[in-house]
Automatic annotation (TrEMBL):
Name of a matching Pfam family: ABC_tran_CTD
Keyword ATP-binding in annotation: yes
Boundaries of every ABC transporter domain copy: 6-225, 290-508
PROSITE patterns cross-referenced by the UniProt entry: ABC_TRANSPORTER_1, ABC_TRANSPORTER_2
UniProt keyword list: ATP-binding, Coiled coil, Nucleotide-binding
Residue spans crossing the bilayer: none
Entry annotated with the keyword Ubl conjugation: no
Species classification: Bacteria, Pseudomonadati, Bacteroidota, Bacteroidia, Bacteroidales
Molecular function per GO: ATP binding
Bias-annotated ranges (Basic and acidic residues): 515-526
CDD domains with a match to the protein in the record: ABCF_EF-3
Listed PANTHER family: ABC TRANSPORTER ATP-BINDING SUBUNIT, ABC TRANSPORTER DOMAIN-CONTAINING PROTEIN
Official protein name in the record: ABC-F family ATP-binding cassette domain-containing protein
Coiled coil: 532-559
Length: 597
């Protein structure tokens, strides 16, 4: 039987008169990789915060296994003013049982882990880093702590796709037990083996990945709908029975009267889904969209665009991908005239009406109410040519109730801010949407609705996103920012590109001389990026050892589960723990070396 790491019993939490969840009970066991799914505002992050001890429940208990090592990655990690990447990872090593003799080894591991996560200068101050870079530093520290249980709140937000895939591969192979909130559907599908959904103040557990959850959730909703129809049908009959002889009610069977009131209560369950309504059509767009002619842009030594020329066609939908900091956001700001090129020109068509969803978020005054902020933009909102809304009516389509519209913007959650930002963009009926990381802070249900809207959007679209599922769902082709001003135009979605890249890398691997000739990095950097002969031998040996250890572990588990008496049970139990520790160490080293393949 799997070891219990965490037990949550009868947990209840509310804010004022808003109930998030009631009497929630579930367990986390060794080997679980659990994803928590729910609409924004229904308690995902709150549940994680309660488990992590950062918030208190109204009632209920949380019990961790004694001695359990827990690592926590917050959605927005906190750092001290003078933290460097390495200094942050090295802080509090005494709590990790790292003695003075092992500090140097731990420091080497920390530097390697930071490098794997794209932090090449371990001594750089965290205060000068982007949000994505600082999050990678926090993640490195969590992993280095070698926790038994790792708690992650939106781990993929603000990270580029390469880093997301590294984390995905690491967590898939790692033996760490995992409890996380994320809206990244590919990440959920490939990493998790259990889904917990918060819905209507209760939780539902599904033993499988995200794809399995989708199928079983639909079955659950259909079963609940059928049950509700049956309850309402029975209730109508019982109401007639209750009305027929009111004067003799005292003599009626008490159990039937009790059953009537129980049916009445059950019939009030609301199975309708409150979802964002994106029913805004684009305005007319002409045949000329934009032309880029010989555009160049650099910041110091960093080249963003190098003689970029392109003619954008009507109804094109293109995704922008590439590492953080390579210039994707600068590109879309230049297109809109927010940033000027060093040379060259953008010629934008007269009918183009941009709608810009920026990564920085809304620029509304935090001291204003939601309704006032939208009213300042327009007191009369006209969409689809002739459909008129008041600001209050329009906001209801984005799940802002009349009470929510009176909230101050400073009090809005990340999801509410994202929806308000989206409303402010679409209320102008744009015909060219420019979306910079639109998936951050939107829940999975809203993302699905946004994807449907964009697929049918009768206009143009440029989207910067690290969400691979989102890109696969909506774009026709990709601009791949490769660095040094190079942009590759790839026909297809992200999965198509990833498949092509994998095949292209394999086919070109033997041509070392050609590859090296095209590699403009200094020789020292190229050599460090490849395996040495010694590392190659180590990698091959690790592959064999990991397979042997997994076989030994399976054999020991079979013995433990057999129910038969084992003479040397203590020795076998001790060896079992040693095998698990060795697997963790060797798999981590295997992952580090595999990045050099």
């Amino acid at each position: 039987m799997a070891t219990s790491y965490l037990q949550v019993e009868n947990l209840t939490k509310s804010y004022g008169d808003r109930m998030l969840f009631r009497d929630v009970t579930f367990g986390v066991y060794e080997g679980d990789k659990i994803g928590i799914i729910a609409k924004n505002g229904t308690g995902k992050s709150t549940l994680l915060n309660i488990i992590a001890g950062k918030e208190s429940p109204d009632s209920g208990n949380i019990t961790f296994r004694s001695g359990l090592r827990v690592g926590i990655l917050d959605q927005t990690p906190l750092f001290q003013k003078d933290d460097t990447a390495l200094g942050y990872c090295m802080r509090d090593t005494e709590h990790l049982h790292v003695d003075e003799h092992d500090v140097w080894t731990y420091e080497d591991r920390a530097r390697q882990m930071l490098t794997q996560l794209g932090i090449t200068d371990a001594d750089s101050p965290v205060s000068t880093m982007s949000g994505g870079q600082s999050k990678r530093v926090a993640l490195a520290k969590v992993i280095l702590g070698n926790p038994d249980l790792i708690i992650l709140d939106e781990p993929t937000n603000h990270l580029d796709i390469k880093v997301i895939e590294w984390i995905e591969n690491y967590l898939t192979r790692s033996r760490m037990t995992l409890l996380m909130v994320t809206h990244d559907r590919y990440f959920l599908d490939r990493v998790t083996n259990k889904i917990i959904e918060i819905d209507r103040e209760s939780i539902y557990t599904y033993d499988g990945n995200y794809d399995y959850y989708l199928r079983r959730r639909q079955e659950r909703i259909e079963a609940m709908s059928a049950e509700l129809a049956k309850v309402k049908n029975t209730l109508r009959k019982e109401q007639e029975w209750m009305r027929r002889q009111p004067q003799a009610r005292a003599g009626k069977a008490k159990y039937r009267i009790d059953a009537f009131y129980d049916l009445k209560s059950r019939s009030r369950i609301n199975l309708s889904e409150d979802n964002v309504e994106l029913n805004v059509k684009s305005s007319y767009i002409g045949s000329k969209i934009f032309e880029a002619n010989g555009v160049n842009k650099r910041f110091g030594e960093k080249i963003i665009l190098d003689d970029f020329t392109y003619t954008f066609a009507r109804y094109e939908k293109v995704g922008l991908i590439g590492p953080n900091g390579v210039g994707k956001s600068t590109f879309i700001k230049m297109l809109q005239g927010i940033v000027s090129p060093d040379s060259g020109e953008w010629n934008v068509g007269d009918t183009v009406r941009f709608g810009y969803y920026s990564q920085e978020g809304i620029s509304f005054d935090d001291n204003k109410r939601v309704i006032d902020a939208i009213t300042e933009i327009a007191e009369d909102i006209v969409v689809n040519g002739d459909v008129r809304y008041s600001p209050m009516q329009f906001l209801t389509h984005f799940l802002f109730s009349p009470a929510d519209q009176q909230k101050y913007i400073s009090t809005l959650s990340g999801g509410e801010r994202a929806r308000l930002h989206l409303a402010s963009v679409l209320m102008r009926s744009p015909n060219f949407l420019v979306l910079d990381e639109p998936t951050n802070d939107l829940d999975i249900m809203t993302l699905g609705i946004l994807e449907d809207y964009l697929r049918n959007f009768n206009g143009c679209l440029i989207v910067v996103s690290h969400d691979r599922f989102f890109l696969d769902s909506i774009v026709d082709h990709l601009f791949v920012f490769e660095g040094d001003g190079v942009i590759k135009d790839f026909p297809g979605g992200y999965t198509d590109y990833r498949t092509w890249l994998s095949e292209h890398t394999e086919n070109s691997a033997p041509a070392n001389k050609t590859s090296e000739a095209k590699d403009n990095r200094p020789r020292r950097e190229r050599n460090e990026a490849r395996m040495t002969f010694k590392e190659r031998r180590e990698f091959e040996q690790l592959t064999v050892e990991i397979e042997q250890l997994n076989n030994e572990k399976s054999t020991l588990e079979a013995i433990f589960k057999s129910g038969e008496a084992v003479k040397d049970i203590i020795e076998k139990s001790t060896r079992y723990e040693e095998v698990k520790t060795l697997l963790d160490e060797k798999e981590l080293r295997w992952l580090e070396l595999s990045e050099k393949e």
